[in-house]
Amino acid sequence: MTSSGMQRPGGRTARVRTAVLKAAEDALVEVGFAGLDLGDIARRAEVGRTTVYRRWGSVGALLADVLTDMAEQSLPRARTGSLHEDLRANARLVQRTLADPRQGALFRAVLLAATCDPAAAEALHRFYRTRVDEWAPCVTEAVERGELPPGTDPAEVVRAVSAPLYYRMLTTPDPLDEPTADRAAAAAESAARAGAFRPAGPEVI
């Protein structure tokens, strides 16, 4: 994780990027993807419109950079030595992010943007590939320890942990709390231990 108190190399360029990305996140939370405007984002960031248009060029490209930055800022995966604890840590990290008033609103806006903007969709897919790749080794290690059947698909297990939390956020007004996260992790773990995420073999007749 990149600490928020650290400045990436680049001087003024890095400061401009940070200011513009924060302004873009603020705008996404306040007005959603449909209301995004590069000129308004430049005003919010207190930088020149020309700078924003020259560097990003389109709302989709800017949103892609927002997601790149989010991936860079994400916390590293847990390394507890236990599949149960690793998956629970993953679920609770997702839960805290989606339940946060700002981060939850930001993710809802990004998900909506991905349904209508190809650049946003590709950026979203890249973001989740990064996060799944970060957490997949906890499943690989569980297979090596004998906790899971050989051939278990690590990426599918990680996705199975998060999927119920996103579904709950998007389809219900119910609170997204730690017990909900723990249930999602436990369900994914049980399915993985039962072999649900192994490649399908020949049908037995």
Describe the structure.
The structure is a single chain. This protein has 9 helices and no strands. It is an all-alpha fold. It folds into 2 domains: 47 residues, Homeodomain-like (Arc Repressor Mutant, subunit A), CATH 1.10.10; 122 residues, Orthogonal Bundle (Tetracycline Repressor, domain 2). The longest helix is centred in the middle third of the chain and has 27 residues. It starts with 11 loop residues before the first helix and ends in a 12-residue tail after the last helix. Pfam families: TetR_C_11, TetR_N. It comes from Kitasatospora putterlickiae. This is TetR-like C-terminal domain-containing protein. InterPro entries: Homeodomain-like_sf, HTH-type_TetR-like_transc_reg, HTH_TetR, Tet_transcr_reg_TetR-rel_C_sf, TetR_C.
List keywords for this structure.
205 residues; disordered N terminus; elongated; 2 domains; Tetracycline Repressor, domain 2; 69% helix; Arc Repressor Mutant, subunit A
